[in-house]
Amino acid sequence: MGESPTGWGLSLQEAISGAKLRNEWGPTENTIQSTENNKKLENGKFNDIGQLVSGVKCYVLKLVRFKGEEVYQCCDKGELGEMFLCGEQLSPGYLDKEQTSRAFCYLKKVEQKKGEEADYFAKQAYSSAGAFRVYQTGDIGSKNSEGRYM
Q1: pLDDT for the residue numbered 146
Q2: Cα distance between residue 4 and residue 9, in whole Å
Q3: Which of 9, 109, 123, 137 is spaced 20 to 30 Å from 99 by Cα?
Q4: How many Å apart are CA 80 and CA 63, to the nearest integer?
């Protein structure tokens, strides 16, 4: 979760009539802002990092074994997992190609039998039909039943 506002942030909000304090989360690799929480503070804190901003998609995934392979599975609501970002704001990468290949990858949905409910994704280094590019943030988070990220 993002940092709680302290001192000057709270004083500024109180001093400026009608000012809103927002909690935003997002890595530079996704042009800084990925989620936004503009709800009122509760006990001087934000309870979550908010909802996705337009053009951003976030997957909260966990590494599991499926059909004998290590793949990523979407976490259930409230379950902790690693946050993967994708969308139109995603950076093309770094100048260092090796560093880019470690942080950015492609996910491709694993074919499942009819009736299997969970979504599984295979991680790939390069694009292929049906794969989509993501940034593997390294941040641990969850998504609640209201669609807000923690």
Answers
A1: 87
A2: 9
A3: 109
A4: 11
Nearest to 51 by CA among 31, 36, 72, 29: 36
What's the distance, CA 81 to chain centroid? 10
Q: Mind listing the domains of the chain with CATH numbers? A: 8-141 (2.30.38)
List of residues 6+ apart from 135 with CB closer than 8 A: 27, 29, 30, 84, 85, 86, 90, 91, 103, 104
Phi, psi of 51 (to 5 degrees): -110, 160
Tokens of 36: 């936004």
Torsion on CA atoms 96, 98, 101, 103, rounded to nearest 10: -70
Measuring CA to CA, which residue among 145, 149, 134, 123 is closest to residue 63? Answer: 123
- Model pTM above 0.90: no
Q: Is the pLDDT of residue 96 over 90?
A: yes
Q: Mean pLDDT for the chain? A: 81
